[in-house]
Amino acid sequence: MASRACWHHGGGKGDRVSRVYIFKRFERFWHWAQAALIIALLVTGFEVHGSYRLAGWERAATLHTQAAWALIGLWVFAIFWHFTTGEWRQYIPTTERLDAMVTYYVSGIFTDAPHPFRKTRLSKHNPLQRLAYLLVKVLINPLVWASGLAYLYYNELVAAGIAGPGGLSLGVIALVHTGMAFLMLAFLIGHVYLATAGHTPLAHVKAMITGWEDLEEAPADDAAAAPRESSSAQGATP
Amino acid sequence: MVKPPHAVVRCFAAIALLLAASSVCAEGDGASAKLLRSTSDHTKFKVLQQDFASGPEVTRACLTCHTEAAKQLRLTQHWRWEYLNPDGRRLGKQNVINNFCTSVASNYAYCTTCHIGYGWRDASFDFNVDENVDCLVCHDTTGNYRKAPGFAGQVVTKDTEFPPGSGNLVKGVKLRPIAQEVAKTSRDTCGACHFYGGGGDGVKHGDLDSSLASPDRDLDVHMDALGNNFTCATCHMTQGHQVPGSRYAPTAVDRGSARLRGKHYKTNPTTCQACHGQTPHKPAVAKLNDHTDRIACQTCHVPAYARGGVATKTSWDWSTAGMMTADRKPMVRKDAKGRVVYTAAKGTFGLAENVIPEYVWFNGKVTYTLLGDRVEKGPLPTRISHFEGSADDGASMIWPVKVFRGKQAYDPVNKTLAVLHMAGTDDTAFWANFNWEKAVAVGMASVGAPFSGTVDFVETESMWPITHMVAPAKKALGCADCHAARGRLDKVSGVYIPGRPGDHAAWLELIGAALVVLALAGAAIHGVARLLASRRRKG
Fold this sequence. Notes:
The complex is a heterodimer.
Chain A: H1 2-8, E1 17-21, H2 25-49, H3 57-85, H4 98-106, H5 127-152, H6 154-159, H7 170-194, H8 203-210, E2 212-216, H9 220-224
Antiparallel strand pairs in A: 1-2
Helix pairs in contact in A: 2-3, 2-7, 5-7
Chain B: H1 7-37, H2 55-65, H3 69-73, H4 77-80, E1 83-84, E2 90-91, H5 108-111, H6 136-139, E3 160-161, E4 169-170, H7 175-180, H8 187-194, H9 232-235, H10 273-276, H11 297-301, E5 312-317, E6 332-334, E7 340-343, E8 347-352, E9 358-362, E10 366-368, E11 382-383, E12 385-387, E13 397-411, E14 416-417, H12 430-433, H13 436-446, E15 456-465, H14 506-538
Parallel strand pairs in B: 5-13, 11-15
Antiparallel strand pairs in B: 1-2, 3-4, 5-8, 6-7, 7-8, 9-13, 10-12, 13-14, 13-15
């Protein structure tokens, strides 16, 4: 296990490290475009909310709406991509080694303990990531999307008799939208921080840019081989 | 044989002909413009070619052709100064007590200067006499028609000393040339009364003053003298002399679409929607159309009133009236701009230009405090007139209003507003004697109301819709005027306004902020711990 120490210090004996292509081009584009849009939405959204003044309310609201439509468009592509490539399986939650991940972040990471999870192409996310991303995808995103569209089309909802006095109010819609924004912001903070928790502070970021991740004694055959349909949920096992 | 003219002569002749032709042409344009204005040239009417000795004589002449005009006029609020509120109460100038000059009763000869009739001197005025209708006050085009205060709406045709023995000369008005130049109403004719409501230029409404006689585009995009040049009647589309759009019968909410010619409408034609419909904003700013269900157009498009350089009164405290100078003359005080802010006759005024309206939910119902309604001093002012409405009655929009705050006389024993005898040459009129008890006694007696003999002052508040002085779109309110902390609609409740902190759910803000702080703190602590651990390992 000595070689792990090398990773953490950025050195490494090349013979024990292999590079694996983890993040495909669309995935990387999706990730960074989404990151930019979500940050833009948070910045403009909290201005529209009245938390501070930055671009001016009108510009903030306009930019927010435009970014929202762009993000919706991106999501449509991403959802299509996830289903056609089968990548959606990356988000199937597992409790396997979840405790190990928690233990690692709570103590192992400080003592240079080995990372309990090893990425493969078929299993890109550690169990904590799976859980967090799934939460984003099934809770935050749909609610942000639905409440945001209801916000934009409130008048139409009123005209249709769904919203308005006695029914769904703009206040409730805004409440859900704001609540999700807070969750998204908290997620973003955690996500950005944990992105520095790779074997070097920038390792994960680099992988997300280039697509290539350095892996310990990677069974290159595995990664490159034909997909193992049933293994995606067990990928966490080193 | 006739010799052909010399070339030079021919040339001159041609030029002369051309000039003559062009001048004929120009005359023709002018003439046709005048010709096409009306089918009648009133100077040609025999009946108008006489020297009129009085207003009613002119009216009699008018009625020889316009046989039904007086009958039409006699149906109007302009004539009767009375309006039956939907709640069954009798309103109109004749009946209400406001917090400006308070009441018409017992002051007829002065107040009826602005009546569209002749001779309404007291309650015995006969509303059924056709010749008492004043045609000229609305149809004058010369600007020379004037009715002097104190003559009960009669036009003075011979130079007259008024009040008698005062040395003040009221100049006689020559009616013949005025009668011969009558035409449609104008901003000037309507404005002669409506610009001066409350006893002076811009006093009462704030969105109506003499600056609208010839406004520029910024002051009013519709009445813009060099642009759209609307007259009052362009919006107050009058048929048969029945002028729509009275504030006594306001249309707070108009869900209709823009009017089409040929189609029959029973709705108020003066609303913005009557021309602009429900989605007046261009696609680039389409989001604004989502506001038209809850926000009156005026709220954004009349960003401030009294914008034309004429100050409007914002408050009026009658209780300070009656102060005399050291040499026993009625006191007058002016502010730094030379505007009168105190007179012994009227008390203390607040004046302001470019006033930001207050905003209220309004459903078109207005409640009044009338003579005899219980009035008591309390923490809140007495509501002389109050706009009803709420966010959830399904019938209200957010409207800009002028709230006029005053302090006026009331009878603290009988607990009613007082009718004041202000104007007159007699010994009881307040403006002659500065004695409240006498003025109220005569005022109350004139309407047959009891008076305890005691006068006190009570704080009052009246509301006036702000609807004129529509700015060009570029000068309308922007988003951030309301979508902000302490914005224009800060005090309007019952509606969620994005960007207004008052609408935030405190618990969500707290939990959200806590979550974000925890995430940041967690990352920071974890990160520092990693850094320290890594250094220790290295060391």
